[in-house]
Amino acid sequence: MTEFLIYSKRCFLVDFFTEATIHVKEQKIQNIYKGYHKIETISFLDYENLIVMPGIIDVHVHINEPGREDWEGFDTATKAAAIGGITTLIEMPLNASPVTTDLKAFKRKQEASKDKLHVNCGFYGGIIPSNKDDIEDLIIEGVFGIKGFLTHSGIDEFPNVSKTDLEAIAPILKKHNIPLLLHCELTDDNVPEVTNQKSYQNYLKSRPQHWESNAIDLAIDIQKRFDIKVHIVHLSASEGIERIKQRQKETNKLTVETCPHYLYFNAEDIPDESPIYKCAPPIRETTNNDALWEYLLDDGFNFLASDHSPAPPERKQLESGNFFKAWGGISGLQFTLPILFSEGKKRGLSTEKLISLLTSKPAEFLGIDYRKGSLQAGFDADITVWDDSQKFQITENAVQHKHKATPYLNETVFGKVIHTFVNGVQVIENSKLKTLQQGKLLLKDK
After folding, report:
1. 61 and 40 share a domain?
2. pLDDT of res. 106
3. What is the predicted pLDDT for the residue at 446?
4. How deeply is 379 buried, as exposed, middle or buried, from its count of CB atoms within 10 A (0-12, 13-18, 19+)?
């Protein structure tokens, strides 16, 4: 079916819902008609009261291939993405092996994705202390940004960088107008002694808020002095909000995201011996997370992203329950939409605002908002259709990730993805995989 019409009373066009019919042909949106518009010679998909919106764009995903396919891989990750209504994702430079810190590794990663992409996939490159001379090659090859850690990444081959390392590459980033993405934690010894490695509260206190806020100060300093784009990934500490707000009044080159797990879970509810919840920075207390929600509702976050970072059960220490030995990452790529929609309903987040934070806003960040992130004539036909009234429980059978373990397991949520279209092809029909290998490799426009 290369040409068809999609009708709904609730099409999300730009920033509002309206009754419309979308004409798709040869991978693109050809036209959008107001109201019900049937053409006898063209297949007609009547979705009535389902929400028809642009495909979700997730700009923060760890797929880990090549080298750590036992953690996750392109095949399973992009199947999960499609089931979750995600039509485009951007993959991080770790935890693949080799990490994406030079041109050879980047080309190897592209090759590893061949015939395994069920949604569109782009990439970031990485900055480590030893690869300043590789950064421009990565940018020219087509990465969407350069990612660095200000604390240990958890992967020895991706060591953290210093302020000096960032200063060295800032002119290159400025020249190419490419964002620097930073994991903002600066470690110090100002933390309590760990008395119980299976205690979540001990783990939480081991990564205090000031680690994040100090790192944010460094990020803002680099952004201000070099006038480059700087993006703060996965903000969890509310102490950082005021710093970010003040700088954002002066520039549009400082951006920030947060993730579903920081908005859905609270530290008080996380039991001991349950490292399935472990991530870095950590999920914090209710009062902190309420402040994140307040910032979100006040249009503070530029967009939302999953930070899907899975690992095998043994790496997550699911049997031992040891938070300090466990891999720090949340497996949740497939469930971004229902998790955020369900919690957002309780918090007063409009569906219109949520959709923008998952579609047009990340497209703008990536510089692909001329072709993705909106339902407009001439745009790629990446379309997600979902039922905001459908309640369901997240079960093991539904999980498409490599591993079934996720903190969202058994949660009851609203907002089920029914159909997903990638480049004009229906890849998900009635919440099941239909057509595979329809994703495209995305490279940043030269």
Report:
1. no
2. 98
3. 60
4. buried
